[in-house]
Design brief:
Largest sheet: 6 strands, mixed
Shape: globular
Structural class: alpha+beta
Order of helices and strands: HEHHEEHEEEEEEHHHHH
Oligomer: single chain
Strand content: 5-15%
Number of strands: 9
Number of helices: 9
Helix content: 25-40%
Length: 295
């Protein structure tokens, strides 16, 4: 990553569209896929044509496609290095609504260790090899060469942002970027073993009886998941509450019989994230719903 312009951090004066676009083009020219973020530092939601992944999704989302939507769709997967896309009419309109800029770390061959507070920074200095660092509003981003699966809350105040995730662009930072260490990869292994639901299958108690799932009819389950996705993506307010209630409804129907798979859970989380929810909020809502139902 070279030395593009530093975008002013929020709070503070809102960057001008021309400033955001200039920095985006500079980053794109170095091979860093970029996307605008709207108020709340979240991606733009899918357009009407792409709602519920009707378009099949973007190729780098590992789903059918390709999506030919000209808009800033599919959250992190909207990130691009194509200057023609970045300066297109649809994206120009988005730059005028954007408050800051983000990049797909994994798409740039990078991993960002997001340290959210002073305690997390102190832990990193004691545990991780030095690398390029970028100050954030409350902490620091430590940037390493190499990619891995993104994970949130791998320890208090620490998130890992790499593939299928985005990080805010807050400037090139200081220090020499080093290779992704095993110490960061080990954090993800520990996180996967802690029974978090995303992106792994949820283990729930078997239904009393012969163990056969009454919802095995593919159409019944598919319709239920599609309705849940629609309920989330059509929410115009109280998104947090809508996501929680929807997760609760899905788990109350399908949580005890074992018919939910990784694919179903990822679809629900993706719908929530398209509305601005973070992976951490999704995980918390899912776990809270399971606790409420005693799963």
């Amino acid at each position: 990553m070279t030395q593009p312009t530093t975008i002013r951090r929020v709070p503070g004066p809102r960057p001008q569209p021309a400033e955001l676009l200039r920095t985006a083009l500079e980053l794109a020219a170095t091979g860093v896929p970029v996307l605008p973020l709207r108020a709340g530092k979240v991606p733009f939601g899918n357009c009407r044509q792409c709602a519920d992944n009707a378009c099949g999704g973007r190729p780098n989302m590992k789903s059918a496609g390709p999506c030919r939507c000209p808009g800033v769709c599919h959250a992190w997967a909207a990130a691009t290095t194509d200057p023609a896309v970045l300066t297109s009419p649809a994206w120009t309109a988005a730059w005028h609504r954007a408050v800051t800029l983000a990049y797909h770390a994994g798409g740039a061959g990078l991993t960002v260790v997001d340290l959210d507070d002073a305690a997390a920074i102190a832990w990193a200095r004691d545990t991780l090899p030095a690398t390029r660092t970028v100050p954030t509003t409350r902490g620091e981003h430590w940037i390493y060469r190499g990619t891995m699966t993104s994970h949130n809350a791998v320890r208090p105040g620490v998130d890992i942002k790499s593939t299928m995730s985005y990080a805010r662009w807050l400037g090139p930072g200081t220090g020499t970027m080093t290779a992704l260490p095993d110490a960061v990869r080990v954090l993800a292994v520990k996180e996967r073993s802690s029974a978090r639901p995303m992106p792994h299958a949820v283990t729930v108690p078997a239904r009393v009886g012969n163990g056969e799932c009454p919802h095995r009819a593919p159409a019944y389950l598919a319709r239920g998941i599609a309705m849940a996705e629609q309920r989330i993506t059509e929410a115009r307010s109280a998104v947090h509450a809508t996501v929680y209630r929807t997760f609760l409804a899905v788990l109350s129907t399908h949580g005890r019989c074992g018919c939910l798979t990784d694919t179903h859970i990822v679809r629900l989380f993706t719908a929530a994230q398209s509305k601005g929810e973070t992976a951490r909020h999704c995980t918390e809502a899912w776990n809270n719903a399971r606790t409420t139902l005693g799963l």
